[in-house]
Amino acid sequence: MALHELLYGAYGRLLERSLDRSALPRHVGIILDGNRRWAKAFGTTTAHGHRAGADKIQEVLQWCDDEGIEVVTLYLLSTDNLHRPQDELAPLIEIVEDAVARVAATRRWKVHPVGALDLLPQETADRIRELQRQTADVGKGVVNVAIGYGGRQEIADAVRALLLEHAAKGTSIEQLAEVLQVDHIAAHLYTKGQPDPDLVIRTSGEQRLSGFLLWQSAHSEFYFCEVLWPDFRKVDFLRALRAYSERERRFGS
After folding, report:
1. How far apart, in whole angstroms, are the C-alpha atoms of residue 93 and residue 99?
2. What is the chain's pLDDT, residue by residue, as a tens digit (253 residues)?
3. What letter would DSSP give residue 214?
4. In the chain, N or C: fewer CB atoms in 10 Å?
5. CA 5, CA 115: separation in Å to the nearest integer?
6. In a 3-state reduction of DSSP, which class is residue 201?
């Protein structure tokens, strides 16, 4: 074994031992960024980069499981991604569908799609819903797969669902406006019933949300990592957890 691998392993174990187990996140959101740049750096196809990124998912979910993280949200395909050229989009959707199927096959996580599945090809949407059904009773952890997802779209969908719910009850717009609270909208989000993300990790060095969980991340801690997603290592993950555990969360105050 090479010296750098020995040092890497030792450093990882040191990081893991140093974690404050009482201060770890329950819900981690991950913006899986950098697949295309990774592919370009290696002189290979964009699809190969996306496949490498999909392969990384299993590894990272294992790390989350090891650390007792209950909910993981993976930003796999945004609404903006759906406007990419068809020769790039078609294989990307296939790769994403396969990645979700592999998560379901572990029988360790409930698969919960978040996003506008009706924007996807019908076969893909049906497959994702079937994987959700198949994993409804497995494990304790939840993996939210954000596919065809946009934060503004989610909020619009939540408000629409709220209005329709109250219209069915005969509530007028004026009556709803008088009683409307933040919790009423939150109860109609894609992630309703789940804790908001404590920690949001973004790889590739970009420092923006790109529409990811705009409502839910109001009080999240953020960790931006320079490494491209396919090269994301366990030490990078542990550093993110350590940084989170060392912060004093103020929840907007």
Report:
1. 10
2. 576 667 666 776 777 778 888 899 999 999 999 999 999 999 999 999 999 999 999 999 999 999 999 999 999 999 999 999 898 899 999 999 999 999 999 999 999 999 999 999 999 999 999 999 999 999 889 999 999 999 999 999 999 999 999 999 999 999 999 999 999 999 999 999 999 999 999 999 999 999 999 999 999 999 999 999 999 999 999 999 999 999 877 765 5
3. T
4. C
5. 39
6. strand
Write out the two tokens for 31: 């913006």
Nearest 5°: phi and psi at 69? -75, 130
Q: How far apart are CA 70 and CA 162, in angstroms?
A: 28
Give the number of other CB atoms < 10 A from CB of residue 186: 15
Question: Token pair 């819900």 is at which residue?
Answer: 27
Tally the residues of the chain. 253
8 Å CB contact between 147 and 205: no
Domain boundaries in the chain? 24-150+196-246
Residues labelled as active-site residues: 33, 81
